[in-house]
């Protein structure tokens, strides 16, 4: 669904002297609501408040600005819509009836002080040899130059998240054995590995992150150091990172791994075919980025978590529908493959399948995710019935051998070709007599 703001005045799409602001659904070209400009101001103010910010008094003057300034504001609003209303899907998120997050805490003698374990079901409190080996293998160093009295070269250490991830994968059975984690037969399990190190220096993942999300796990690390200065500044002041507080980074990483929620500072760019980093809207009420200390979720993360599950299911349904159509085409088409009764049932099921997909997309455009999930789950029954019909029909096909017969001899073509050949041969043989009058006489 692509929503955009359009001013309902014909002479200029950017003129703001009209009395209503229309929100249109671009995919279906239907008007959803008409908001007076006074209400639009309040909507913007509430949107800022949702991110823990306040609109300054001069923001009310935006509506009276000239078209040149509004031309600069319009792309910003479009970028805001792309980041907040339709954020990118980070990873496919299949629908699961049961989701399990396993917190595995690896620490020394200092204990687990400073972490909120109220929502943690199980912890990992015993020392093990594989833990020290994992950290030692993933530790890497980098050099930086700082200008004090002169340029000073400083060597710092960090943890390579990819190497750490690979080491944990190779030793996952050992972690589960030492941590005495039960085996889960049903549901999706997301392990969260928290490394609590007894060192006094700053040790981050990939130099900048306290927690890193992977498709199959989350890795976090902290040391005895309480805070560090990040490479970012806000309002002319350096931004400090509280390295002992892992609750907020863990919330963001679990959102990425479990529900595929993309961080608010990462935007997918089709032009570059990669993700771009932009911290414009990564402020306020968001668990991502260094410019906020709030770990609670706003409507951006809540809607994206529910929508990503629906988008993954919708993509699977459409892909499976295309596969069954290609299978029918490979067998000669629906009328040749399916008999009359089965063909009627196939048409009915296919129309129901398309209807439910349309209703699901419509429900998603109205943010009714429960109804969208209902139609998607219901469409799975029709898709399964279609696959069953095609499978049984293909099993009943019998191979037949048609004997090859030589085609009759084309006597007409042979006689015409032979006559033309003999005519040319006769002309060639009589060329002296036929072209004698054409020769020059001396």
TrEMBL record:
Keywords: Membrane, Transmembrane, Transmembrane helix. It comes from the Eukaryota. The chain crosses the membrane at residues 409-429. PANTHER family: TRANSMEMBRANE PROTEIN (PTHR31515:SF4), TRANSMEMBRANE PROTEIN-RELATED (PTHR31515). This is Uncharacterized protein. It comes from Sesamum angolense.
């Amino acid at each position: 669904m692509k929503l955009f703001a359009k001013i309902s005045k014909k002479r200029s799409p950017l003129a703001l002297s009209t009395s209503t602001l229309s929100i249109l659904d671009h995919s279906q070209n239907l008007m959803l609501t008409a908001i007076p400009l006074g209400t639009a101001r309040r909507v913007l103010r509430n949107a800022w408040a949702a991110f823990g910010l306040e609109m300054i008094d001069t923001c009310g003057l935006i509506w009276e600005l000239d078209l040149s300034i509004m031309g600069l504001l319009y792309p910003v609003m479009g970028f805001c819509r792309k980041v907040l209303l339709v954020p990118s899907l980070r990873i496919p998120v299949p629908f699961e009836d049961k989701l399990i997050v396993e917190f595995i805490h690896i620490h020394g003698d200092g204990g687990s002080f400073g972490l909120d374990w109220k929502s943690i079901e199980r912890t990992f409190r015993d020392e093990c040899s594989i833990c020290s080996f994992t950290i030692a293998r993933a530790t890497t160093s980098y050099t930086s130059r700082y200008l004090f009295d002169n340029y000073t070269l400083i060597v710092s250490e960090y943890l390579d998240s990819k190497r750490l991830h690979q080491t944990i994968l190779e030793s996952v059975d050992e972690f589960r054995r030492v941590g005495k984690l039960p085996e889960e037969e049903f549901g999706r399990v997301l392990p969260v590995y928290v490394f609590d190190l007894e060192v006094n220096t700053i040790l981050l993942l990939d130099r900048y992150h306290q927690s890193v999300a992977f498709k199959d796990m989350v890795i976090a690390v902290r040391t005895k150091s309480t805070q560090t200065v990040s490479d970012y500044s806000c309002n002319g002041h350096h931004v400090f990172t509280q390295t002992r507080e892992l609750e907020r980074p863990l919330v963001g990483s679990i959102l990425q791994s479990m529900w595929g929620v993309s961080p608010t500072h990462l935007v997918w760019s089709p032009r570059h075919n990669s993700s771009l980093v932009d911290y414009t809207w990564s402020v306020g009420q968001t668990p991502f980025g260094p410019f906020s200390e709030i770990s609670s979720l706003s409507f951006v993360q809540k809607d994206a978590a529910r929508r990503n599950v629906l988008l993954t299911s919708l993509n699977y349904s459409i892909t499976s529908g295309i596969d069954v159509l290609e299978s029918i085409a490979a067998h000669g088409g629906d009328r040749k493959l399916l008999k009359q009764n089965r063909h009627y049932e196939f048409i009915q099921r296919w129309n129901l399948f398309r209807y439910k997909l349309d209703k699901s997309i419509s429900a998603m455009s109205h943010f009714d995710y429960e109804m969208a999930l209902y139609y998607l789950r219901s469409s799975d029954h029709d898709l399964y019935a279609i696959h069953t019909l095609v499978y049984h029909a293909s099993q009943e096909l019998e191979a037949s051998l048609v004997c090859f017969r030589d085609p009759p001899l084309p006597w007409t073509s042979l006689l015409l070709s032979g006559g033309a050949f003999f005519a040319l041969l006769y002309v060639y043989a009589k060329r002296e007599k036929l072209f004698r009058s054409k020769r020059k006489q001396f």
